[in-house]
Amino acid sequence: MGDTIEQPGPLTGKSDWRKFRCLELKNGITVCLVHDKESKTTAAAATVKAGAAADPRAYPGIAHFCEHMCFLGSEKYPGENEYKKFLSQHGGRSNASTSLHLTTYKFEVLAEHAEQALDIFSNFFVSPLFTKSGTGREVNAVDSENSKNKVADVRRRLQILKDMGDQNVYWTKFTTGCSSTLPTEKEADLEKIRDALLAFHRKHYRPENLVVVVAGPQQLDELESWVVPRFGPMEAKAFPVNDNEMTEIERMIATAATDAPPFAAKDPPAPFNPPFRPELQSGWPVLLTVKPVRSMRRLVLMFPLPSVRKIPDQSPTAVLSHLLGHEGPKSPFALLQNEGLITSLSAGNRFGEPTFSLFQVDISLTEKGEKRWKDVVDVILQYCRFLHLEGLAAKNGKSSELSRIWEEKIALNRIFFDETSPGSVYGLCPSLAQSIMSHGTAASMSAGYMLQEDASTFPLSDFEKFTSSLVLSNCIIERSSEAAWAEMEESSDPSKQLKTEQWYEVEYFLSDFEKKDLDCWSGADGSAPYLDASSLTLPEPNRYIPRSLELCADLPEDAKVGPRIDKEIDPPNLLVNDPILGRLWHRLDDRYALPKAHLSIGIANAESENSKVHGVWTYDPKKSAASSLLASIFNQALAQETYDAELAGLSWSLSLTSSGISLDCSGFSDRLSDLGLTVLKEFLKSSFITEAHFDGAKDRVLRSLRTFFESRRADSHAVYYRNLLLDSSSAGIEASLKATEALTLEDIFEQHKSLLANSEIYLDCLMCGNVSEKEARDFFEQSTRLLLDAREGKSLANTDMWFPGPTEKRLAPLDEVDLKFQSRNPHEENGALIITYQSPIPAFRGERLSSPESLESSASLRLLCHILKEPLFNELRTKQTLGYIVSSYYDMALSMRPAELKHLGPQCVPIDLITIAVLSRKVDPLQLKVRADEFLDKFRSILLTMPDSEINSHATALSTKLLKPIQKLETEASTNLSKIRRYASEVGSAVGDMPWSNAKVMAAQIQKLRRQDLLNAWDRTVLPAHRSRVVSMVHGSSFPLQAETTKPKPHTKIISNSVADIISMRKSLSPYDNNPSERRSSIGFPRFIQNRSVMALAAASFVGAGYIGWSLIAKTKKRSSS
User: What transmembrane ranges does the database entry give (predicted)?
Assistant: First the structure.
């Protein structure tokens, strides 16, 4: 087209099937169009070269506020919710984010509706409204977002570093904003904020500052025909050039714009300018001491270094990150872990700004390490000096080791670049838009992959320069722990200064170091090291780098040519079906054409969280706690052994859940079986259980448990109390804490022994990807042999075993439980509301496993949630501005039949749930419940009058999303694995009954639904006359929990600040089985005593992809949304 100038397209890997076209429009907008033939959706993103760095000091947060306001209508589409309503109706979603330098907007929608969505989206940049009414309301949303952030340690620690900065430097600006920085209560203040908003938009939202990316299945010409006429009319708004022509607010905006350093790819590099106050920088090193919200023992060494943004392929900090963060033998991590001082270590840029980098070594200490933190500092600084000497040796031609490591990084990066299949268009668009802004179109996909590098291009000069700056005189040392804070409070050090950060009011100490520490750490003559690090070396060659990237010889030739994502996924084949030992499932990949594979081993073993009482498996809190520690110990113990595998693109995880032992490995197929066998072999031995690893793991779990209530947000606590009632076996955090405190090293050995001694075990193994049937059989044979050998010849006797897992409790029709608790987090201002509706009809399991009633019910509830989401958000979040977090979603829980009832029906029953969640400091949780109920009461009328076309649009959108092709092998594996572990034991040898095609069946049913089906599902699930629900409310400091003054409504039971009452009520509830619930008497406290014999729940939950047990803390997270 004549209105565009073609730009160089990005360099892409050989597994990338997408086509790209880059253009510059006549008005200066950079556009990248992407044809993704496999996508069923179209996405777009627009990145503006403006962020919080350009905020005026008088109005912190104005860039972030502008991001919020852009979504609230345009001249062509003035409706505030028109954008979100359209996306919701057509299977879409949207979001936006503001950083210091960029603001990015994005959306995704079903491909056939993309042009209309793009038209709405483009008008936010061409002609936004920025209404006066929206200004006041949306400030409340920004304020709610800020209040949510105040309890996050990462945010608090960031604000402390900014407080240490030079307040004239852009980096120190407060980026989020709040009601005090953007005041709108008074009419005059509101006018000023809106004027500042409009001026900011005129100044920065200009065509030359904009990158637009659109990706979808449409051809490039079609995408271009959409984008050019929509973004081409965007004009730079008039903004005075001369100071004397500007208003006061325009002058403020113009001045603040000069604070932001050059950021775009075409801009020249900015000079090195560390952001900290001159008096601090001239007095390095300095000790920063912080009191965290969550329990941690963190030690961080931070070094201001020059920016590397302009040299992504030759970044010396990337090399330093690899060397200082390495976890293999003879690394700083290995030495310090072997000494029992640390549990984790990472290194890299904390900030990568245009004017500086802040390189950090971030370390988690053990209790022993907290006392010897100076030894840890000493080892890190010794290794920094060692690296500098290695650089000098390389410069003088005396060592080639750095070049060898550089070549290894190049080789691995090229493999990753070429052997990675594309992800979703929704993920691509924003990241590509930001990368184009930073690196230009040609390097936007390849920056950082070192594709043009070789042994001769190692940045030796920069490496020497940077390592010479990893010294005490250029260092901030941060200690973040309760013990460090207590030490500083009690210290008589005259140099200590107690400071208070401005925005979050976080206190921190700054202090100097003793001379003897400085002499030791700097390696001064005559001073011995606190801990000798002379044995440390550079990393050895990585033995896990793939030897071959060839595709399996068993594949047909057409499957080797390239990806075939549109091909339907064949179900895995059952190669071994041993009634005593286990099953082997296998699928040779014929869709992705990548040399990758995935293997999973699930060993059903009730001993992980149960003991036999009178011949029946019963939940045992001691065993549950011991299994949690055992898994943590093992993962910690194998860190050094398997670190090279992680670097080479292999990953593994081993967990002990209510279901047993679960091992998952994924990555390049060449070495995958070796890794899986290594991990399994090491676990079956007990040599990894050492006192040092035990102490570290126990300390980590105990700290997390002890600070659970004091460190998390109100909505996390609300989910925790709900889960404690419905799907937990434990007596709560306090009981778990008590059980964990009592554990000894001998208990862990005993738990390991009992897991292997249990004869009632069964193995399910899935291997899929670039792996032949023979390789799968070999792996299964070797792994089962390892398991049998570990049992020392003891036979298995599991023909009638119970398959353990989570158990969900069932509420009766009309039952409502209100859980009311006060947050114990002293920093939490917000209150939270979580409403969970439990369907009376079991969820759909599969065509041959469920009734038509279950299929219709599940389909109806999924579609109802799809329709409900936008109007609820619009009412409670946009109009009433109750809080930053307002959401509703379909959820699913899974219930395994208790041991004593294992013969009475299906082993696994899924349960459909509808969940409403609100986090707010505007009104108290009781009022949030009232507001939510008022809307839900109206929603039935909305449903009654909704045009058929709109219902059909939602149905089409949802069914299309369900049928969206899987694009990643890991996703395919987890989907199949979840079905195997839920239903394979039930179907037995009738493999044809496995519900492999559930998504197709559900999508077809959704398309058949009538309005009356939705109304029926709504009435029996949500309508007060029939519903069963839990309302979990946690009060923050803004609205503390008050004593009950009103009588509960009929069928409503209230539990206030009592975990014991939750446990008592839980004992009165029956397990959720596969029968529709019948009307029965509502729950009542007098029934608790009568039902104490009910089996305790299993302590974990299947989550979305299957066999993943929740840890004690992870149980507080919401169940996986479908």
Answer: 1094-1113
Kindly tell me if the per-residue pLDDT of 887 is higher than 60. Answer: yes
Q: Which tokens in the block code for residue 742?
A: 């009592």
Q: Is the CB of residue 897 less than 8 Å from the CB of residue 982?
A: no
Give the distance from CA 402 to its chain's centroid. Answer: 34
How many domains, in total, are found in the chain?
4
Query: How many CA atoms, within 13 angstroms, populate the side-chain half-sphere of residue 835?
Result: 21
Structure tokens, 200: 């900011």
- Residue 838, SS3 per DSSP: strand
Q: Are 869 and 91 in contact (CB under 8 A)?
A: no
Rg (CA), the chain: 30
Alpha-carbon span 442 to 451, nearest angstrom: 13
pLDDT, one tens digit per residue, over 683-692 is 999 999 999 9
Residue 801 placed within a domain = no
CA distance 164 to 358: 13
Q: Residue 768: give the domain boundaries.
A: 575-790
842 and 777 inside one domain? no
Instruction: Indicate the residue among 774, 790, 806 that finishes a domain.
Output: 790
User: What residue has token string 């990241």?
Assistant: 431
Same domain, 162 and 306: no
**Average pLDDT of span 379-383:** 98
502 in the same domain as 390: yes
Per-residue pLDDT reduced to its tens digit, 795-824:
777 656 778 888 899 998 899 999 999 999
Which pair of tokens denotes residue 953? 């649009």
Query: What confidence score (pLDDT) does residue 636 get?
Result: 95
In a domain, 847, yes or no: yes
CATH code of the domain containing 304: 3.30.830.10
Q: How far apart are CA 702 and CA 729, in angstroms?
A: 19
- What φ, ψ does residue 1003 adopt, rounded to 5°? -60, -40
Task: Spell out the residues 6+ positions from residue 634 whose beta carbon is closer than 8 angstroms to its own.
Answer: 654, 682, 683, 688
Residue 344, H or E segment: strand 342-352
Q: How many CB atoms are located within 10 Å of the residue 963 CB? A: 13
C-alpha distance from residue 108 to each of 71, 311, 593, 924 (Å) = 15, 32, 27, 34
Pairing of strands 357-365, 41-48: unpaired
Q: Token match 């599940």: residue?
A: 858
Nearest to 1026 by CA among 812, 808, 726, 867: 812
With vertex at residue 310, the alpha carbon angle to CA 308 and CA 314, rounded to the nearest 5 degrees, is 65
Write out pLDDT tens, residues 914-941.
999 999 999 999 999 999 999 999 999 9
In terms of Cβ atoms closer than 10 Å to its own Cβ (0-12, 13-18, 19+), residue 727 is: buried
- Average the pLDDT over 1104-1114 and give the result: 29
CB 740 within 8 Å of CB 626: no
Q: What is the pLDDT of residues 129-169, one digit of tens each?
A: 999 999 999 999 999 999 999 999 999 999 999 999 999 99
- Contact of 749 with 686, CB cutoff 8 Å: yes
> Residue 258 has what pLDDT?
96
Average pLDDT in the 211-218 region?
99
Question: How far apart (Å, rounded) are the C-alpha atoms in residues 742 and 625?
Answer: 10
Q: Which residues contact 204 (CB under 8 A, 6 or more apart)?
A: 48, 49, 50, 54, 63, 257
Question: For residue 1018, what pLDDT is reported?
Answer: 98
591 and 458 in a common domain: no
Closest among 207, 155, 185 to 31, alpha carbons compared: 207
Residues 676 and 713 sit within 8 Å (Cβ to Cβ): no
* DSSP tag of 1115: G
Running DSSP on this structure, what letter comes out for residue 419? S
778 and 846, same domain (yes or no)? no
Number of H helices, E strands in the chain: 35, 28
Question: Is position 449 within any domain?
Answer: yes
Residues 975 and 912 in one domain: yes
Instruction: Kindly state whether residues 94 and 135 are assigned to the same domain.
Output: yes
The residue ranking higher by pLDDT, 532 or 1121, is 532
Q: Is the pLDDT of residue 9 over 80?
A: yes
Is residue 894 included in any domain, yes or no?
A: yes
